[in-house]
Amino acid sequence: MGITTDSSSKSVSPGSAVSPLLRRYFGTPGRGLLSVLLATVWAWAAWALLRWAILDATWIAEDRSGCAPGGACWAFVVARIDQFLFGFYPPDEHWRPALILVLPVVLFAVAVSDRFQSQRQMIGAAIVLVPIASLALLVGGVPGMPHVPADKWGGLALTIVIAETSFVASMPFAVFLALARRSQMPVISMLATGFIELWRGLPLVAILFMAVILLPLVLPPGFQIGRVEMAITALTIYSAAYLAEVVRGGLQAVPVGQLRAASALGFGYWRTLAYITLPQALGKVLPGIVNSAIALVKDTSYVMIVGLFDFINIVTAALSDPKWLGSPTEAYLFVAAVYWLVCFGLSRWGRSIEIRSARARGVVRS
Amino acid sequence: MLPQCAEAVQTQPEQPEPAARISVEKGGLMSVAETLESRVEPSSEGRAGGPRIPPRLRRNLGSIFWQGCTLIAVVALLAFLGHNIALNLKARGLASGFDFLSKEAGFAIGFSLIPFTETDTYGRAFIVGLLNTIFVAFVSMILATVLGTIIGVARVSKHPPTAAAALVYVEGLRNIPLLLQVLFWQQLLINGLPGVRQSLSFGGWVFLNNRGLVLPDVSTGALPVPPSLMAAIIAATLIALSIIAFRRAEPSRRRQVTVWGIGALLALEVLLATLTVDWSRPALTGFNFRNGVVLVPEFVALVVALTIYNAAFIAEIVRAGIESVNKGQREAAAALGLPPRLTMRLIVLPQAMRVVIPPLANQYSHLLKASSLATVIGYPDLVNVFLGTTLNQTGRAIEIVTMTMAVYLVLSALVAGFTSWFNAKVALVER
Question: Nearest residue on chain B to A317, judged by CA atoms?
Answer without folding.
Answer: B183
